[in-house]
Amino acid sequence: MNMAVAVLFAASYVTIALLNPGNRAPIWFAASYGVGMLTPMAQLGLAYSGWTTPFGFLVYFSFALALLLMVPALAVFYRQSPPWRLLAAIASYTFFTVAVLSQLHRNSWAYELLYQSPYMLAMLACVGVILHRSRRRTSDLLLAAMFALLALHFPVKAVVAVRIGTGAAVTNYIDSTYALISQVSSGIMLVATGLVLLIKALQSVILEKQADAETDPLSGVANRRGFDMRAERMLAGAAPQRRPVSLLILDLDRFKAINDTYGHGAGDAAIRAFGAMLMRTLPPSALVARIGGEEFAVLLDRTGEEAAQLHAETLRLATATCAEDGAPAFTVSIGVTEIGPPYEMKAAITRADAALYEAKEGGRNRVVCAPRRHLQAVSAQL
């Protein structure tokens, strides 16, 4: 049963890896379960082949390696460098325990606790990686809790081993009551943890694909689809509290001249630099999107007209120096409007576009706010 479960999990992660070639974490997870599959195979070989020493070592080290592989797998999953020094320390400790175990009596407290300790340390390392490197969302905390329970499970197994015994010799293990308890309990814990991890991995892949579909690849900000979806959520959240939201429409000045004079590569560089500047300058809560060729939109939550105008002036000034090295400098014109009840995005875009047109007609490189009377007039028409 445990072999079959390990194969299913390994196959699941291999499938995820094949469908998402740029994602390395599923490969690590598949490797962990693939190595773990060797443990029950070695236990059968230990019981029925008579090759006590090689299969005994394979049982111990394959399970330890499978659990240790989960540590870098989680680190890669959370987009961090694996803790190689910690892994090397636990691996060295595992080899040390083998030398000490040969000097101890089987079924003694010292033997059983020492035998289970490398497994416990590997699982505690997994907990540490999750808590240290994740954003500690509910799903992350649940995953950390599952690995913590799995870590606690190993010293509990040591207690049970001492109480009921694991067989007079290593070859008698598979016929003991402890073997049944150990295999079933470990199987249940590993399956439960594996299911939470698999759900988390699939959720990550789905969110990554969704982000790709809603992101403009050149500028790195949201595309029109992403803007429309997130703007709708922002306005829906603002409406019950009637809090202000402001919209900025930004258009790069004389962008066609940049393409015609310097080539489309320079135009792409301008779009890239401008998108990076917006993300760098605006608060993290701002929704930034490229909604047209050289046109961008910014939605600012909890921001009234005056604060939005200050943000727009900051962006206008930052634009003059944001060009990439060797690329031509450029400027931006910005239309600003405050969004209030009834929180209609279509009307807000109309007002901001009108203000942007006024900025362009007024000589470019300017910020123009849609007057409040214009806001009220457009809202009344709708």
From TrEMBL:
Catalytic activity: 2 GTP = 3',3'-c-di-GMP + 2 diphosphate
First and last residue of the signal peptide: none
Name of a matching Pfam family: GGDEF
Keywords: Membrane, Transmembrane, Transmembrane helix
SMART domains assigned to the protein according to its UniProt record, in alphabetical order: GGDEF
Keyword Membrane: yes
Enzyme kind, highest EC tier: transferase
EC number: 2.7.7.65
Sequence ranges assigned to domain GGDEF in this UniProt record: 243-372
Spans through the membrane: 57-77, 84-101, 113-131, 143-165, 177-199
Domain of life: Bacteria
InterPro entries: Diguanylate_Cyclase (IPR050469), GGDEF_dom (IPR000160), Nucleotide_cyclase (IPR029787), Rev_trsase/Diguanyl_cyclase (IPR043128)
NCBIfam families per the UniProt record, alphabetical: GGDEF
Name of the protein in its database record: diguanylate cyclase
Source organism per UniProt: Xanthobacter agilis
